[in-house]
Predict the 3D structure of the following.
Amino acid sequence: MNILHTLQPGKIGGTETHVLDLVHNLDETNFRSVVVSFTGGVFVERLKKMGITCYIVPTTKPFDPRIWKKLREIGQKEKIDVIHAHGTCAASNSIFMAKSMQLPLIYTIHSWAFTHSSNRLKFRVKKGIERFLISKSQRNIVISDTDLQLGVEKLKMRKAKLISYGVNTTHYHPNRDSKITKSSLCIPSDKTIVGFINAFSTLKDPFTLIKAFAAAIKVSPEIHLLMVGEGPLKQKCVQLINEKGISENVSLIPARTDVADILCHIDIFCYPSTSKISPIGILEAMAMKKSIITTPMGGITELIDTNLDGILCASGNVQDWASAIVQLHQNPKLRNELGERARQLVQSFHDIKRMTESIGAVYKSLLNKDSLHDEARPYIRA
């Protein structure tokens, strides 16, 4: 089966990592992956290194009729059997191709577009677009039970299947030998390392972490903060770090792709997100037995039970975050216990093999024209 994946990538984030993992791990005896990216960049370069056929069809607009003919030509040339659109923009630009070539369309909702809109008019427009897209696809895939329930309640979604993100637990393994050193990351070897690997954006809320760290270091000077990434708030974060007088206790480095090697040197992984997205970054850290501090937002609560798999702190609550950092720093035994249970959870429910087999089964069911009845199942924990 020839599967065409379409997406509008940014820098390597959750959606991009998911697609890279998916095309790399799908059973090559049954599936051949072709990718259409609507922008170039690091994502495309990594696909080419993997030997994946990839086309760049430039656009930043949803429902862009200028590219539909080109997409159809690619579909015919590559003899595509199934189209798999990742994200809203990709789905909107894949509908014409699917209809004109009479191909089944799968739409993976990595997050609902309307959940990020505070403006009422934009909320209604984006909600209408999502309702239209899910009605035109033969199967919708959601990555968390939260998104599943939102789709059913807000959009009357049908033809939905819950397939959570998967992680390569061999690559993200706690016993891996890091190819980089602490000195290359500008972090000390004798302190507890608190890590942030994410975009410096409003949704990721780096300000709360910086303020919490500044409070925590007054209680426990033996901690150090490593922040990895880029984004519109990075310069303001630098200013806040200087204002707090903690610049010697914080290392900032640009976004990198060797996340597993960086995680080897982190003791406490922090994800202070205000978004309801189920993040693949948390799963990667969990797979490497890291103790997690994060927020009780949406899909995150399906990954973390506080004091079992990690610690949940209210979004924006600086004091709670500072207390959690100090608690984990002072209690290595608790860190180890949280990390052990986190690794077990990922191995049981979020392994990459489990994810790719589930998606492969969806491909086969569509091509075999199996029943497309609802499969809206709740997330199941061990």
